[in-house]
C-alpha cells in the first residue's frame, strides 16, 4: 500500500542480502520515457498493466533481485500468476490504516490523493487490494518502528519461511495441486482464492475437528475477504457417511444460500472429505470443492483423487461420485492434534503406498516408528511421498478403468479391510486404517500361499505393522468375525467383475498386480487360519 515502505525496506533488504534492488515503477518510467501518471492518462490502465506485467516478468526472469512492485501490480490476476510462475518469494508489508495515514501525510500532491480524503482513498484501496495481497508467501505486520527494524523482521521472516510443497495432479483442464506444509490454515484464503470462481464457501467439518481447527481456517478465509456462507458440522465417525446425513448436509447448504459459484470446503478426515465431496458433487449437479484434510489417513490418501461417497448396508462407499477438488491443503500442523490411534490408523495407508512404490517401503521400515510417534519431519515425508504416488496413479487412471493395475492397485489390502469394516458395522471399534493394516497382512499371506512371493514376505509385512502398533491379523482385532460373513461381504465388493472377487497381490515391494484368478477355497482357508471363525 502507499506508505508501507516498499522502496525503503526493499533497498535495505537488498543491501543485507547483497542483491540488486529494482523498483518496478521506476523501471516502467525509464522504459516508457514518461511518468506513470502520463502513461495512465494517455493510454489507460489496461495498457499500463500489460506493460507493467512484461517489465516485472523480465526482471524476475533474470538474476536474483529484490523487487518492489507497484501497489496495484499484485492486485492484477495475470501479474500475480506471472510472479507465481517465476518462483519468486512474495512479501506483503501489511500496515494498519493509522500507520499509513501518518506516512502519506504531505503526499496530497500525488494523483490518487488529489482533492480527496487520504483516509477514504486508503480504505478503498485496502478493501480492494488486501484480499489479493493475502496470496503472498510471507506477511510481515509493520508498525511505526524504524525502517532498519522492519527490514530485520522482513529478513527473519523470509529466512524462517518454509514454502509448502506443491504436487500437481495432472487431469487436463481439471488439474489441481496438493499443497503440503505447516501453517496452511492461516493462509487458506490466499491459497484457494486463485482456483475458485468466487470468494464464497460452505465449510463442512465434524464435531471433533471443528473446535480444534475451524477458528484458524475461518480466520484464514476471512483475511482474504471470503464470505463463509455456512458452517455445518456432523458427528465424527464412519456412521456419518450415510444418505440421511448427506441429505441434512445438502439441506443446510441450500438453506444458507449455496449457489453454483459457492465452494464446499471439507475440513476433517476421510469421512468428512467423502461426505462433503459427495455433497459438492450432487448439489446443483456439482459445485466447486476444496479438501482440507486434518488426519494422516486423509492427507496421504482419501483427499487426493476425487473419490467421494457414502456407505450402504451392503458395504463401504457403494454410493458415490468422482468429483475432483480444486485444491488440497494438507496442513501438517493439524497432525499434532491427532490421538495416537488415529495417527497409527493413517500410517497404514503410508505402509500400503510403500508396498506399492518400493523405496518408500524401505523408508517405512526405517522411519515408520518415528512417524507414528509424531515426528514432524517423518510425517511430512510420509504425506509428500504418498501424495506423489497417488497423484501419479490418479492422473494415469482417474476412474479406475484400466483393465489391469492402474488405480485399482491403490486398493491393496482394501478388499479384506472393507469387508472387516462393513461386518463391524462402522461403529468405531475398527478404524479404516486398522482394517487396511489387517488387509495388508492378509494380502501378503495370500500372495505367498498362491506362490507369487517368498514365504518369508508375509512375516516381514506383519512384523512391521505390529511394530508400529497396528493390528495385522484378524486374531489381533477386539471382536470376532466368521469366514462366511467376510466372504459374503467380499462377494459384494465394487471391484469385482463378472461375479468374481478381485484382489491386489504382491510379488515384492513395488511389484504388485490385480487378479481375479484366486480360488475361493484359498481365501476361506486363509481367513480361517488367520483367526476368522468357521
TrEMBL record:
The keyword Transport does not apply. It is found in: Cytoplasm. Residues 346-496 form the 3-dehydroquinate synthase C-terminal domain. InterPro entries: Dehydroquinate_synthase (IPR050071), DHQ_synth_AroB (IPR016037), DHQS/DOIS_N (IPR030960), DHQS_C (IPR056179), P-loop_NTPase (IPR027417), Shikimate/glucono_kinase (IPR031322), Shikimate_kinase/TSH1 (IPR000623), Shikimate_kinase_CS (IPR023000). Binds 1 Mg(2+) ion per subunit. Its EC number is 2.7.1.71, 4.2.3.4. ATP binds at residues 3-8, 110. NAD(+) binds at residues 270-274, 294-295, 307, 316, 334-337. Keywords: Amino-acid biosynthesis, Aromatic amino acid biosynthesis, ATP-binding, Cobalt, Cytoplasm, Kinase, Lyase, Magnesium, Metal-binding, Multifunctional enzyme, NAD, Nucleotide-binding, Transferase, Zinc. Pathway: Metabolic intermediate biosynthesis; chorismate biosynthesis; chorismate from D-erythrose 4-phosphate and phosphoenolpyruvate: step 2/7; Metabolic intermediate biosynthesis; chorismate biosynthesis; chorismate from D-erythrose 4-phosphate and phosphoenolpyruvate: step 5/7. CDD domains: DHQS (cd08195), SK (cd00464). Monomer. Belongs to the shikimate kinase family. Belongs to the sugar phosphate cyclases superfamily. Dehydroquinate synthase family. This is Multifunctional fusion protein. The gene is aroB.
Amino acid at each position: 500500500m502507499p506508505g508501507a515502505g516498499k522502496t525503503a525496506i526493499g533497498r535495505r533488504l537488498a543491501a543485507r542480502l547483497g542483491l540488486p534492488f529494482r523498483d518496478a515503477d521506476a523501471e516502467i518510467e525509464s522504459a516508457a520515457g514518461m511518468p506513470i501518471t502520463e502513461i495512465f492518462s494517455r493510454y489507460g490502465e489496461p495498457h499500463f498493466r500489460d506493460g507493467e506485467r512484461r517489465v516485472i516478468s523480465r526482471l524476475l526472469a533474470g538474476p536474483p533481485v529484490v523487487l518492489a512492485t507497484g501497489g496495484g501490480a499484485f492486485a492484477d490476476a495475470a501479474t500475480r500468476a506471472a510472479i507465481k510462475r517465476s518462483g519468486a518469494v512474495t512479501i506483503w508489508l501489511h500496515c494498519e490504516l493509522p500507520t499509513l495515514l501518518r506516512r502519506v501525510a504531505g503526499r496530497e500532491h500525488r494523483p490518487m490523493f488529489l482533492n480527496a480524503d487520504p483516509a477514504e482513498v486508503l480504505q478503498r484501496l485496502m478493501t480492494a487490494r488486501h484480499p489479493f495481497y493475502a496470496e503472498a508467501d510471507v506477511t510481515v505486520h509493520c508498525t511505526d518502528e524504524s525502517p532498519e527494524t522492519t527490514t530485520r523482521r522482513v529478513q527473519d521472516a523470509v529466512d524462517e519461511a518454509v514454502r509448502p510443497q506443491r504436487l500437481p495432479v495432472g487431469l487436463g483442464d481439471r488439474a489441481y495441486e496438493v499443497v503440503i506444509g505447516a501453517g496452511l490454515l492461516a493462509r487458506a484464503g490466499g491459497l484457494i482464492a486463485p482456483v475458485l470462481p468466487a470468494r464464497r464457501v460452505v465449510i463442512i467439518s465434524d464435531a471433533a475437528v471443528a473446535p480444534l481447527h475451524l477458528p484458524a481456517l475461518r480466520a484464514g478465509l476471512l483475511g482474504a475477504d471470503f464470505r463463509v456462507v455456512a458452517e455445518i458440522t456432523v458427528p465424527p465417525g464412519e456412521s456419518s457417511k450415510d444418505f440421511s446425513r448427506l441429505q441434512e448436509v445438502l439441506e443446510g447448504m441450500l438453506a444458507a444460500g449455496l449457489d453454483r459459484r459457492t465452494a464446499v470446503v471439507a475440513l476433517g478426515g476421510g469421512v468428512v472429505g467423502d461426505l462433503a465431496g459427495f455433497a459438492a458433487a450432487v448439489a446443483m449437479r456439482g459445485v466447486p470443492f476444496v479438501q482440507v484434510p486434518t488426519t494422516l489417513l486423509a492427507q496421504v490418501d482419501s483427499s487426493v483423487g476425487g473419490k467421494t461417497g457414502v456407505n450402504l448396508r451392503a458395504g463401504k462407499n457403494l454410493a458415490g461420485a468422482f468429483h475432483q477438488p480444486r485444491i488440497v491443503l494438507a496442513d501438517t500442523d493439524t497432525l499434532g492434534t491427532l490421538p495416537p490411534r488415529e495417527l497409527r490408523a493413517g500410517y497404514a495407508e503410508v505402509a500400503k503406498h510403500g508396498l506399492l512404490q518400493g523405496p518408500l517401503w524401505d523408508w517405512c521400515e526405517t522411519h515408520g516408528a518415528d512417524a507414528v510417534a509424531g515426528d514432524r519431519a517423518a510425517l511430512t515425508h510420509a504425506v509428500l511421498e504418498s501424495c506423489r504416488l497417488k497423484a501419479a496413479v490418479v492422473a494415469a487412471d482417474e476412474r479406475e478403468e484400466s483393465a489391469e493395475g492402474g488405480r485399482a492397485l491403490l486398493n491393496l489390502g482394501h478388499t479384506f479391510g472393507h469387508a472387516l469394516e462393513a461386518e463391524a458395522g462402522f461403529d468405531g471399534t475398527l478404524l479404516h486404517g486398522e482394517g487396511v493394516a489387517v488387509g495388508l497382512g492378509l494380502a501378503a499371506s495370500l500372495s505367498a500361499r498362491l506362490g507369487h512371493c517368498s514365504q518369508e514376505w508375509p512375516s516381514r509385512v506383519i512384523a512391521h505393522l505390529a511394530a508400529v502398533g497396528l493390528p495385522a491379523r484378524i486374531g489381533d482385532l477386539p471382536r470376532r468375525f466368521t469366514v462366511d460373513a467376510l466372504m459374503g461381504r467380499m462377494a459384494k465388493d465394487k471391484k469385482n467383475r463378472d461375479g468374481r472377487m478381485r484382489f491386489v497381490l504382491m510379488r515384492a515391494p513395488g511389484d504388485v498386480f490385480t487378479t481375479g484368478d484366486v480360488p475361493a477355497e484359498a481365501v476361506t482357508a486363509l481367513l480361517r487360519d488367520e483367526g476368522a471363525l468357521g
